[in-house]
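Example record

The entry below shows one chain as it appears in the dataset: sequence first, then structure tokens.
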Amino acid sequence: MVTRSRSDFTFSDLTDWLNERRVTEIECLVPDLTGVARGKILPREKFTEDRGMRLPEAVVAMGVTGEFPEEGPYYDVISPMDHDMHLQPDPRTVRIVPWATDPTAQVVHDCYDKDGNMVPFAPRSVLRRVCDLYAAKGWNPVVAPELEFYLVARNTDPDIPLKPPKGRSGRAESSRQAYSIDAVNEFDPLFEDVYSYCQQMELNVDTLIHEIGAGQMEINFFHDHPLQLADEVFFFKRTVREAAMRHDMYATFMAKPIAGEPGSAMHIHQSITDAVTGKNIFSNPDGSPSQEFYWYIGGLQKYIPACMALFAPYVNSYRRLARYTAAPINIQWGTDNRTVGIRSPLATPAARRIENRVIGADANPYVALAATLACGYLGIVNRIQPTPECKGDAYLGDYQLPRSLGEALAMLRAATDLHEVLGESFVTVYTEVKEIEHAEFMKVISPWEREHLLLHV
């Protein structure tokens, strides 16, 4: 369902769009560090009059539990006086809310301070910052996410493990159904709604497949500019969650929601075109891989470990990254090799690209895209050579990624050259927020601990 480009959508076009659809309410959205949609719902008249709104700046800088750091470097960036951000809508992001009773639109907003500067720790600002670095070099980054998620039975008790939902047959999946058409058809009524919603929202989703896990699905997006794709992933997550609840089930993007089943990833295909010629700089004129192609891989190899707190942002994220679980354990690279963390799919020279397979489905799409592009950018500008291509089973190699959130945060704090690309303020706020999330998790005693330690130690 490819639609017209929104790259030149103006405020005048936005007004016409709202009028044509007789919109009466606007959901003014701001993605926070977690990827949660924060903001306000305004009457159409109020939105048109103000064309913007204000929110406390800490709204985009809280943890998944809704907590804030109580002290420390966080408040060197965010004022303890709780200043306002000035939010401005991006007209190109306007979408209808297809499940709303009254005609309602949703618009993503950018965050500015009182002087008109972008708030540096807002996720959308970070991705804009990295894209601007590419533009300054005369490059256009192009990405295409593949997003995995699970459908699970409705679960209102967090102490009870998740289970696959029942499909049209009245039975829940109990075995692996990778690429099964019939297994997808079990949930036809749900996916009819999902595709209908996506069409009404003009989301450029491509194929839907059943992944390996019981109730695990994958949706692919057409390639485009990173900011547009991050917006579309952000919208899609809201959409599929809403559709699932209307069919008495949940959709979850947790990295590892069900024990014994594979985790969910957000694989990101990425390439770069020349801003003048439009040619893929990963290929030479004779069709062979370019130096930029190899340097980009070198950058991913060097910096992915330090970016893991951005690619795998929760304690649960690291349960996915285990040997022989369809998730990578190292930063090896290879051609048409799904055991590596960095894969080069078979493609024509014009479509040559690199797939980052490390990123979890639970990652904030704005942050994940900014981070993977930052790795590749540093690889090219610093001419980092990759290791030799892995032509075998990368699972036979050593772990090369941090094994916990605490270790990942320490590595991110130490990667000062990444700070320069992503922004020092963002890294400070992000790591401080993740520290309090980790501290909250450590207060919880798990069933494993009660089962194995209660009477044995």
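Notes for this example: The CA atoms of residues 33 and 144 lie 21 Å apart. DSSP finds 14 helices and 14 strands in the chain.
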